[in-house]
Amino acid sequence: MATNVSTMIDADRIAQRVRELGAEITRDYAGRNLVLVCVLKGSFVFTSDLARNIDLPMRVEFLGVRSYGEGTKSSGVVQITHDLTKPVEGDDVLIVEDIVDTGLTIAHLLDLLRTRKPASVKVCALLHKPARTRIQVPIDYLGFTIEDKFVVGYGLDWAERYRNLPFIGLVESGS
Ligand code: 5GP
């Protein structure tokens, strides 16, 4: 199944970086009320690995979003398809995103979550494509900066496929 996808970031490099991010977050959030907000669907793999590398009492919440942009384009207008199950007022929210591309989705989610009156809201993204930035958003914890290529795997899909690949890759043309 994976033969038509070339590797951009292999599973070992991802695991190493996720361990480093987990250690940083563990240091920074000691004594706080950490809530990881996993942005579905793309962040489910990253969130599950990250959570297991954070050595603190914490909660996990899920935010389902659907972008109105079709195919590989983001419009930044997102529909919430699944909301948090508990209030985050007074909590230290860390949004866990698979990839920040134009920045429109994360800007929208930051605005949305700030209305819930958390003590703080920060962003942890596995990937960032700076070439496509349309709105500057702070990425407090970042896994990797990548070039402007459409990537799949490790939770990221292409028409719902490839989310289960253990690495980040590029779909070869013709597949
Ligand atoms: P943004 O609003 O920052 O442009 O887009 C963020 C969302 O677009 C991501 O959460 C992801 O769902 C999707 N996206 C952006 N770039 C890629 C990519 O290279 N591969 C995949 N699979 N999704 C992407």
- Roughly how many Å apart are the termini? 11 Å
Strand order of the largest sheet: 4-3-2-5-6-7
The total count of strands amounts to 9
The CATH topology: Rossmann fold
Overview of the structural elements:
21% of the residues lie in helices and 31% in strands. The chain has 175 residues and is an alpha/beta fold. It has one domain: Rossmann fold (3-Layer(aba) Sandwich). The strands form 2 sheets. It has a 6-stranded mixed sheet, sandwiched between helices. A 3-stranded antiparallel sheet has the order 1-9-8, with helices on one face. α2 links the parallel β2 and β3. The termini are close together. Guanosine-5'-monophosphate binds next to β5, α3 and β8.
Show the helix and strand layout.
Blueprint: E1 5-9, H1 11-28, E2 34-40, H2 44-51, E3 59-67, E4 78-82, E5 92-100, H3 104-114, E6 120-128, E7 141-145, E8 151-152, E9 168-171
The protein binds guanosine-5'-monophosphate.
Features:
alpha/beta; Rossmann fold; 9 strands; globular; binds guanosine-5'-monophosphate
What's the quick description here?
Helices cover 21% and strands 31% of the residues. By secondary structure, it is of the alpha/beta class.
